[in-house]
Design a protein that fits this description.
Elements lengths: L2 H16 L4 H11 L1 H6 L1 H8 L3 H12 L11 H14 L6 E3 L1 H4 L7 H15 L5 E4 L8 H8 L7 H8 L6 E4 L4 H7 L5 E2 L27 E4 L6 H4 L5 E4 L23 E4 L6 H11 L5 E4 L5 E2 L1 H7 L5 E5 L2 E2 L15 E5 L8 H8 L7 E7 L6 H12 L9 E7 L5 H21 L5 E6 L6 E4 L5 E5 L6 E3 L8 H9 L5
Parallel strand pairs: 1-2, 2-3, 3-4, 5-6, 6-7, 7-8, 8-10, 9-11, 10-12, 12-13, 13-14, 14-15
Antiparallel strand pairs: 16-17, 17-18
Helix pairs in contact: 2-5, 5-6, 8-10, 16-17
């Protein structure tokens, strides 16, 4: 290697360092890119397979994270190549597998048969797998790909379920809702089924269990409707309970009696259509002292925060989505002392007590993560946002905060109102970035699965953002701060500060 080649190689290495890419990350990418070499050269293949389990698992995750991008069309040979690479990296020590990336390469007409084949391969070559994801989800905003993956939900049948049941060590499974009931019936050792995400209000459920397992289940998260069946006897390990009510149901207080006997419950998510507040307080009276997580969806009655606080003194995570409040805001000394995460998705109307309740919740001394979902049509109390910014700048709130996310929803009305809202939000974002000592992540983005698209003029100057699904373009230069738009775009992209 001559000096010029060495210099070029050094430049490439420095470029990788500048991208903050670790040596391990670079290595696993290189290995995945050159798996053919390891398969063709037996000695090198043995060396790869002799790597420590943790490193070999990282290589497998690198491979399975690759997803079909639609650039060259799908083909069976392409999928076969990926499947061979996948099989080469499996071992009896493999504990976690995510099939979403691999299956995205499979042509739709072969998907059912190939999924069964992949599961058989896992059962034979990775029999000790404990976590399996088969969701068919793809983060790409490509309609064709989304349609292909959506149809995956309709390929999962009983034969495939039998293959899953053959994985006797399986403890965590993410799968189509269509097969949840069968998995609960036939996988008694399963502990996590589509694990609940605190920031995800679209919680998978198994409300309509038609047949209970024949033996005691190890499942730790469960979604149910009120029922007369003593389900706590079959699911004694449940930690998180999602409770829903049919929209056309006359819910009575007695209908939840069987839901009041879980001995290990520490997390509750209550879904819409609950009409009787006494039912909520029955649940909180029973579980409140041990409750760590509480997610409340829109109710048909007004919530009394003091009642929630008095019953749930050890609450660490609280999500309020379209809730309304009956009582006046509490005194500053009355706070959730242990609260670490807050998700607020409620209106901020002028001349209402919503904003003051939000301010009070932000006084919690241990808050580390805050997510606000602000609706462009109902967030009219901009004084509250300015007051939050003032309290942040003065050091009175959120001193322990590490993550601050603002989601924007429903940006479809007048330009003037949107601009005033953005002025208040950007001041809040700027103050959070400047004055919160432990905050390393500030994000501003739409609530829906879209992205704010930057707009440039013919000279390459940044003009603002467009919001997909609307015809409104927001010109941030009107704020009078030349660097504000770039700052917002950096925050929206989720860059660490």
């Amino acid at each position: 290697m001559n000096d010029e080649e060495k210099l070029e190689l050094t430049k490439k290495k420095l470029l990788n360092i500048s991208r903050r890419c670790s040596l391990v990350e670079l290595s696993r990418r290189k290995i995945v890119k050159n798996l053919d070499f390891y398969k063709e050269h037996e000695e090198y293949g043995r060396r790869l397979k002799s790597l420590p389990v943790c490193l070999r698992d990282q290589v497998l995750r690198e491979l399975t994270s690759l997803k079909f991008d639609g650039a060259f069309g799908d083909s069976k040979p392409n999928f076969e190549k990926k499947l061979q690479d996948f099989s080469f990296l499996l071992s009896s020590d493999t504990k976690e597998i995510d099939l979403d990336g691999l299956l995205s390469f499979c042509p739709q007409k072969y998907l059912r048969g190939q999924l069964w084949r992949v599961l058989q391969m896992i059962a034979a070559e990775a029999p000790n797998v404990q976590s399996l994801i088969i969701n068919g989800r793809n983060s790409m905003a490509n309609t064709y790909i989304l349609l292909r993956n959506f149809s995956l939900y309709y390929t999962l049948d009983r034969a495939i379920l039998e293959s899953i049941c053959g994985l006797s060590k399986l403890k965590r499974l993410e799968i189509s809702i269509r097969l949840m009931r069968l998995c609960i019936e036939h996988l008694p050792k399963l502990r996590l089924l589509n694990p609940w995400d605190f920031n995800d209000f679209n919680i998978p459920d198994v409300f309509n269990i038609l047949k209970l397992p024949s033996e005691t289940s190890s499942l730790m998260n469960l979604g149910v409707y009120p029922t007369s069946v003593s389900i706590h006897q079959v699911f004694p390990e449940v930690r998180h309970l999602t409770i829903g009510w049919p929209y056309r149901s006359d819910t009575s207080e007695s209908s939840i009696d069987t839901l009041l006997h879980f001995s290990k419950l520490e997390s509750i998510s209550v879904h819409p259509s609950l009409k009787l507040e006494n039912i909520l307080y029955q649940l909180l009276d029973r579980y409140g002292s041990n409750l760590r997580n509480l997610s409340i969806w829109s109710f048909k009655f007004e919530l009394r925060m003091i009642d929630v606080m008095n019953r749930c003194k050890n609450l660490e995570r609280l999500a309020l989505h379209r809730a309304s409040f009956f009582d006046q805001p509490l005194m500053p000394t009355q706070t959730f002392a242990e609260l670490k995460e807050l998700m607020w998705a409620n209106p901020l109307f002028e001349n209402s007590n919503y904003g003051q309740h939000l301010l009070h919740l932000l006084l919690a001394p241990k808050l580390e993560k805050v997510a606000l979902i602000l609706d462009g049509e109902t967030c009219t109390d901009l004084d509250v946002l300015n007051e939050i910014a003032n309290l942040v700048a003065s050091g009175h709130i959120l001193r322990e905060l590490k993550s601050f996310i603002i989601y924007l929803d429903n940006l479809r009305h007048g330009q003037d109102g949107i601009l005033r809202l953005f002025e208040a939000i950007t001041r809040l974002v700027a103050d959070a970035s400047a004055f919160l000592p432990k905050c390393t992540l500030v994000v501003l983005k739409p609530y829906e699965e879209f992205c704010l698209a930057p707009i440039y003029n013919s000279q390459g100057e940044f003009l603002g953002f467009s919001y997909p699904g609307t015809v409104i373009d927001y010109d941030f230069r009107e704020f009078g701060q030349p660097n504000l738009a770039k700052f917002l775009f950096a925050c929206r992209a989720g860059r660490q500060l």
